[in-house]
Amino acid sequence: MTHSDPLLAGTDISVRADGKTLLDNVSVSVSANEIVTIIGPNGGGKTTLLKALLGLLPIASGTVKRKKKLNLGYVPQKLVIDRTLPLTVKRLMQLTGRYSHDRIIAALGETGVAHKINDNIHSLSGGEMQRVLLARAIIRKPELMVLDEPVQGVDYLGEIALYQLIETIRNKYNCGILLVSHDLHMVMRASNRVICLNTHVCCSGQPTVVEQSPDYQRLFGTRGLQTMAPYGHRHGHFHDVDQEESAPLAATAGGEPHSCTADHHHHEDHEGHHHAR
Q1: Which of 62, 63, 107, 166 has a beta carbon 3.0–4.6 Å from 135's, enabling a disulfide?
Q2: Domains, the chain, ranges and CATH?
Q3: Alpha-carbon Rg of the chain, whole angstroms?
Q4: Measured between alpha carbons, how far is 128 from 240 in angstroms, rounded to an integer?
Q5: What integer best gives the mean pLDDT of the chain?
Q6: Under 8 Å CB-to-CB from 174, ≥6 apart: which residues?
């Protein structure tokens, strides 16, 4: 695999369950130093696609290729942890590896929550928990990060700060990022490429062009991205709910989308629950 080869690539992936088509001939790839965002309606197959790409769900047809010995960091859509379990942030960070205290502090520091290392995870705010989960992913120094709706349970300003943090991580580690979101207006300008998924690929390409696609507008309406100023122009910084500073995100532009106009019905997506062990 050469430097320009994708870290992860799925070609013509189809997934079926209980007689229903959950994904129909979907192709996606992500390379180093690239943010690829998958958007789409609820039930459109976003989490199903991630699971298929990661080998967590069998595919009916198509191929998935991953870089040999790919170092991957994964943030699931939902982390289900028994509230009666007395689990600290430090212990959560150690569940998937024997990392030193200094390495854990460094990873938590990168996401702005080093001061929470000894706190019980159930005392964290939504934004703090997502920052801990991002730290848990980057402690591995991954080549590819797969993030399934990483701003769930976070307020508007917290979302802005977390998306800025995600781009900072990409720039620091030169890693690829495959990101799933339903909040398309918030993420599109943070992305190099966008894939609009509704069981099949409705349209794909660079964000400012995808928003002009008739398929995109049929699904989401015509509200322009200029209404969401955080990624349309630069400010000095933004603050999340905990008043932590983050560097601004860069906008992207240009490119041609691929459009698919076939009429497909979508089915309920499998929820991305992930249990900590």
Answers
A1: 107
A2: 27-80+141-201+222-260+267-275 (3.40.50.300)
A3: 18
A4: 10
A5: 79
A6: 32, 33
